[in-house]
Amino acid sequence: MDEFSEKLKQFKNFKFPGFKLLIVAVVVLWLLTGIFIVGPAERGVVKRFGEFNRETGPGLHYHVPYPIESVITLNVDQVRRIEIGFRSASQDRNFQQGQTRSVEDESLMLTGDENIVDVQFSIQYQVADAMSYLFNVDGPDATVKSAAEAAMREVIGKNRIDAALTTDKQRIMNQTQELMQHILDMYQTGILLVNLQMQNVHPPNEVIDAFKDVVSAREDRDRLRNEAEAYRRDILPRAKGRAEAMIREAEAFKAMQVLGAEGDASRFKAVADEYKKAKDVTRTRLYLETMEHVLQNPNTEKLILSDDALQKAVPYLPLGQLPDARPRTGGAKTQGGAQ
């Protein structure tokens, strides 16, 4: 026992050359490991004994070295992409650039009218809250993928297959993005959706030919309907215009006839009043005015007979045919008398 105590005292009194300097150097190097740099597009998340402690922005920072504190740098400006229902060359290195592989377990969905549709879409998102992204969800990328698939299945299940294949793709994408963002916010994932884009939407391969025929027939129906609508828009205004013109012409003719009849009635009344005052004079004046009108009308065929010719003429004389049987000359025609 005394021998052991003696050796222990000798060991304590022994001095290693440079031992203290070595310890100081190790401590300095350990302290220097706490220096870290956060890039312009990054956020630094400092953990103390594995628990979130603080978040740092871009620049030079320091934390208590491991194992007391550790730091995770996360790029929050990076736009991450997830593919649902297919895999492209960027996600699967076994494919060449431009090639894709369908994943039917993710893409086949049931529509509201109980049809199956193959929906392939992609999602782009960014990290909005680094702490929530790292600590609130286990496997954030898998969570985003599951939320995207669940949201798309719910929206597709509320729509008919025609809407998904043709006219309402944009509305379906907007509704899916809103529902997906709501799910991610509810789980406090710290993720912000940037874009949701449908890459390919089509019926299952087994029935795609039949659906193409249906779509073609529907397009023909829409085309014929549009042509008929265009014809209707062209013909109706013209028909309405013609009808309006006929109405205006009829109203003008009516007004002309009424005014003419009223004028004739007024003239007849005036002549009747004059006739009552002087019958012989009025009768002679009317005769002369009538003859003047007949003789001055260039469109009337005239045949003038003298008194002798009238005495010798047969009782029946076809005046309407007689001028047509003889050569036409300018002026009036005479027979047995002077013009």
Protein architecture, described:
The protein has 339 residues and is an alpha+beta fold. It has three domains: 16-75, no CATH class; 80-203, Band 7 domain (Tetrahydropterin Synthase, Chain A, 2-Layer Sandwich), CATH 3.30.479; 226-306, no CATH class. Helices cover 51% and strands 21% of the residues. The protein is built from ten helices and 13 strands. Strands 6, 9, 10 and 11 form a four-stranded antiparallel β-sheet that branches. Strands 3-2-5 form a three-stranded antiparallel β-sheet. A two-stranded antiparallel ribbon has the order 1-4. Helix 5 packs across helix 7 (169-186) and helix 8 (208-277) crosses helix 9 (279-296). The longest helix is centred in the last third of the chain and has 70 residues, at 208-277. The protein starts with a helix and ends with a strand. The model is unreliable at 329-339 (pLDDT under 50).
